[in-house]
């Protein structure tokens, strides 16, 4: 299984650099002294108990949440209050959520072309071609003219991934993309993510799918109480955890 941790697509180039980052929700210190460097093409799985700050951390990377101290640099752009920087980072970072967040009143194709047309100013016909390309990639081109409510959860999540890809992101963030799905639909979404990983996408995935972590991740980050407690390649993370907190977590999920 150590084979899987050799990622020919990973490079030394930095995609994301987080340094001494802290975040509070009011009085509550939710993220503490986060240091994390992600290289281009790297595949990171973020694990940890509920409430440990996993979602908050990845939401900080595209400024869905604001940090209060330290640095977050995405593809060379530091996230500050400068709206130009925020726009630039958002245009490079795709995000897929647990609840697919598709627009229910738009068709699948329209969901995929909305942002490219209105944000990227791409001509409609070209945006539709790109959308069909990515819908083929996630294996549901035949659903293009249906509405989200007509699709299964697994199909909707694959649309959400295709919709993100239509913006040509350099980095993809996944926040428990399979947690809301019935078991039989989890695999089709994970397969889509595996394919993306194999193509060299830089990915940060919050997931409880430890099989995915073992076979796809270059590195597993374990968070507890707002801190990165431990990180390692998946083999050592699962077979030789260092901290008591990690051991306790693994004993509960494996
Ligand atoms: P995880 O994704 O690991 O379950 P979260 O990042 O969602 O953790 O949450 C971390 C902590 O921050 C939890 O205690 C949660 O209740 C709290 N929290 C999350 N979002 C908010 C918010 N918008 N306002 C206040 N507290 C929040
Ligand atoms: Mg979460």
Automatic annotation (TrEMBL):
PROSITE patterns: ABC_TRANSPORTER_1, ABC_TRANSPORTER_2. InterPro entries: AAA+_ATPase, ABC_ATPase_HisP-typ, ABC_transporter-like_ATP-bd, ABC_transporter-like_CS, MetN_ABC_transporter-like, P-loop_NTPase. The keyword Zinc does not apply. Keywords: ATP-binding, Nucleotide-binding, Transport. GO terms for molecular function: ATP binding. The keyword ATP-binding applies. SUPFAM superfamilies: P-loop containing nucleoside triphosphate hydrolases. Residues 16-250 form the ABC transporter domain. SMART domains: AAA. It comes from the Bacteria. Pfam families: ABC_tran. Belongs to the ABC transporter superfamily. This is Amino acid ABC transporter ATP-binding protein. It comes from Thioclava kandeliae. The lineage of its organism: Bacteria, Pseudomonadati, Pseudomonadota, Alphaproteobacteria, Rhodobacterales.
